[in-house]
Protein 1
Amino acid sequence: MDKAFEFTPDIEVLPSHVPLPGMGYLPVNAFIIKADEPVLVDTGTGRDSDEFMKTLRMVVDPQELKWVWITHDDSDHTGSIQKILEAAPKARLAANALAVMRMNAAWPVPMDRVYWLNHGDGISAGDRKLTAIRPPLFDNPTTIGIYDDKSDVFFSADCFGAIIPTLAQDADDLKEDALAQGMLSWASGDCPWVHAIPPEVFARQLDTLRQLAPKSILSAHLPPASRMTAKFLDTLALVPASKPFIAPNQAVLDQMMGQTEN
Ligand SMILES: [Fe+2]
Ligand SMILES: [Fe+2]
């Protein structure tokens, strides 16, 4: 878990990262929207759950949280969900119905606190409307990002993630080529299905976001990015025809372990 930082006066980033030996880093972000009805977006990874709770408490009193929005039920987004629901008794759990049902197979989700959303549905957080938008790339069928109409930010879940060479608090601090390459690798590895989609068909999937044109993208797996939406969409358009990502195999692992021992 890294130190929380302010993206805007009303949005705080709760960042963490996973080191990928030989490749770089994968950021893992959760966010707090300091709306009239405060919203936590995702709940970090389970392995740094204690630190996550500590960091969260430095930004907001969990008792004040009104919403916990789970973009999808992958473990890097739901790490502290049970602790949060306990610490934040006034918060409702906003998520896709399938995400809730899948989580309910692992632990008893309090159904009276759940709020089910599909693409296009929304909630009011008092001073803003938060609309569920399915991002063009996703690794889990329950994925819903969030468009915040007050800050003109799109919380994009796994979409626009990147394996990056150095950690940063702003995507603009990364070298453009390295960022584009890291985004292509992540997109290919996280969403291998995209290689089965004709590029011109996938290009149409990007239209929703092109039209929405959010000022900023807050991905779970990228440093915050402002005024880069058009450029990012152009990068994603290249994914179907890009070189498919191949995960390291046992020979690579043996080599890495050997290096660690020496
Ligand atoms: Fe995911
Ligand atoms: Fe993720």
Note: The first strand starts at residue 5 and ends at 8.
Protein 2
Amino acid sequence: MKARQIEDQRETGRRLVLAAIRSHERVARIDIARATSLSPATVTTITGELLYYGLIEEVSPTSSKSDAKRGRPRVDLKIRGQAHLVAGLKLADKNATVALMDFEGTLRGEYSQKFPQKTLNQKEIVDFAKVLLERATAKVGLKTEDLSGVGIGLAGIIDARRGFVHWSPTLKERNLPLRPLLEEKIPLPFFIDNDVNLVALAEQWFGLGRNVNNFIVVTIEQGVGMGIVIDGNIYRGARGCGAEFGHTKVHLEGALCRCGQRGCLEAYVADYALLREANLSASAPCTDNAD
Ligand SMILES: [Zn+2]
């Protein structure tokens, strides 16, 4: 087997083991082997590496019932929270929110601020992200450089693999290579995804989607979004942009959508569409509907 293949296999093994530890919260090596179908020897090697790099730690188990049977003290493994501090940045309709989380997913700080204006150009969004991260980290006595990475969720049609935004209601420009633009000004790894895909991921890791391989999350807010999980993975579609549910055509040549096209589902059921209809109804002359 070529060195590259061996390294790929090791990387897959590391990811599997880390995912198993994360989903179990606290778990013994033997149970990781069962959950991942890796051999106990492979699990021992991989967990040894993860311990060496400080990504996981050994803890005594919460329950010691099984210890007596085995005749030796059992040791559980868990994700080491202090290993990394990351920032999650949600850019919503009018508000930006930063959540600082440790490697275990424990919230360490929060900060939110209104948008300077409704839509931002490429310079404005990079400057805004920089200020948000500085203020969020300062609030907990840290600096932006103390972060290991930043995840950004925003509405729109986004190729997460490239960090490329085809269109977002938050941005003035279309087809923006947002990740390289951010990484040029803020020296941290950035991960950018559609906000509903991230909700689906959060449900998969921490919420109702735990131990569920196939599910869908639909959100109806200022826009309409859908995150699809198939066989445990976020569905990315051919262009890497997933479902684009809100921009499914339900009425050819229908109401104008924020994306610039006509007849999208979002243009009928999102908050802004309902407000538009309410305004139209309010300004329409009264009619007698009693018949
Ligand atoms: Zn649309």
Note: Residues 3-24 form the longest helix (22 residues).
